[in-house]
Amino acid sequence: MKNLKFNTLYIELTHACNQHCKHCYLDCSINKEVMPMSLEQIKKVFLNFKEQGGRKVILTGGEPFVRKDIFDILDYLEELHLFFDLASNSLAMNQNRLKRLSRYKYFSSYFTSILGATKEKHKYIANQDSFNKVLNAIKFFNDREISTYVQVTLAEDYLKDIDDILRMLIQYDKCIIKFTPIASMGIKKEYDERLIVPRKQYSNFLYKIKDLQKKYPNRIDNCNLVDYKDLKTIVEDYQNEELWSLCYGFVVVRPNGDLSFSTGLGDPYTWGQAFENLYIPVDDKLKEYIIKLKRADYKLLEVSKKEILEYDVELEKEVSKQ
Ligand code: SF4
User: Fold this and answer.
1) pLDDT for res 44
2) Could you write out the DSSP letters of every residue in 268-282?
3) How far apart are CA 315 and CA 90, in angstroms?
4) How many whole angstroms from 22 Cα to the centroid of ligand 1?
5) Hey, which of 16, 54, 118, 261 would disulfide with 34, CB 3.0 to 4.6 Å?
6) Which pLDDT score is estimated for 1?
7) Ligand 1: which of 21, 23, 91 to mutate, most ligand atoms within 8 Å of CB?
């Protein structure tokens, strides 16, 4: 029986976070366990990944910098010659940490986030004063020719901020921008519904982003919304692949080491613990999962004839319904 091969490992190092964003889809907070996997377990995950031919690690959280051993983790990736992207809300960034990060040869890109066009608006959503630190980090890396990827997540009241935020970021030529509306709330039990962008606004949002993509080629990433044409392209891309969307070799490791193919927490499928082994056999369980993914994509393709969808979230819901 053959095993799946992975090119990209997405690892959530913790669900603890020094911010407590109103929209956080994982409901991360400082009260969560800071180091659910030990350093030794994380090293074992990377070693397993390297041994099966992996190339790229994306480190995220929660907030990776709440872990005291974050630089030990990065040192080990460097030792293994594994390229890595690192996501941080930037609150814990200071000059020393920025310099230390910029010295890693295998550090590919710094992911961070902006939640409004001013520091007051950003703070209202993040519950922390991180706005200037975010901008400082973007400038610091840009000056050193290191790429950044800025997720701009906007509540309904902040949609009008798109142009101001774009003006702020477009000057940094190594910066890729992803605009996303707050479209749903993940696993949060209590949240402010006024933050959520109503479905009737998806169309304006999506086509505004598509216009910006034409105006600024290679600088604006796709948003999380899709129309029929987008989804048709996605499905056509997968349809000759035996592994459907898994053909891209992307795997997720949860803070406790569980392996998954989805970054949301609603996906009922997990595949053992990544520090024990990173082998996922192409067996009946995996085939069943692929069939569900395929069915879910075709179902959403039908739905997208009538409405614009928040693709990742709807896909996960559809897979768990089947
Ligand atoms: S910074 Fe990210 S992980 Fe932390 S609370 Fe905000 S959205 Fe959640």
Assistant:
1) 98
2) ----SBTTT----B-
3) 30
4) 9
5) 16
6) 65
7) 21
Q: Cβ contacts of residue 18 below 8 Å, gap of 6+? A: 30, 63, 65, 66, 89, 91, 92, 128
pLDDT at residue 224 in the model: 94
13 Cβ closer than 6 Å to some ligand 1 atom: no
Asked if residue 269 lies in contact with residue 186, where contact means CB atoms within 8 angstroms, the answer is: no
DSSP secondary structure letter of residue 105? T
Rounded mean pLDDT, 149-164:
96
Residue spans per domain, the chain? 8-225+247-280
Quick one: DSSP state of residue 116?
Answer: S
CATH architecture of 8-225+247-280: Alpha-Beta Barrel (3.20)
Contact of 76 with 46, CB cutoff 8 Å: yes
**Residue in this structure with the two tokens 């630190």, named with its chain if needed:** 133
Cα angle 194-196-201, degrees, rounded to a multiple of 5: 110
Cis, bond preceding 62 (omega within 30 deg of 0): yes
Q: Are 205 and 219 in contact (CB under 8 A)?
A: no
Residue to mutate (ligand 1; options 13, 24, 90; most atoms within 8 A of CB): 24
Dump pLDDT digits (tens) for 101-117: 999 999 999 999 999 99
274 Cβ neighbours under 8 A, 6+ residues apart: 11, 45, 48, 49, 251, 253, 257, 258, 259
Q: Which atom of ligand 1 sits closest to the CA of residue 18?
A: 4
What pLDDT, on the 0 to 100 scale, is given for residue 264?
A: 80
The pLDDT tens digits of the residues spanning 287-302 come to 999 999 999 999 999 9
pLDDT at 193: 87
Identity of residue 305:
K
Which secondary structure element, helix H or strand E, spans residue 8, and what is its range? strand 8-12
Mean pLDDT of 267-284: 91
Nearest CA to ligand 1 atom 7: 24
17 lines ligand 1 (CB under 6 A): yes
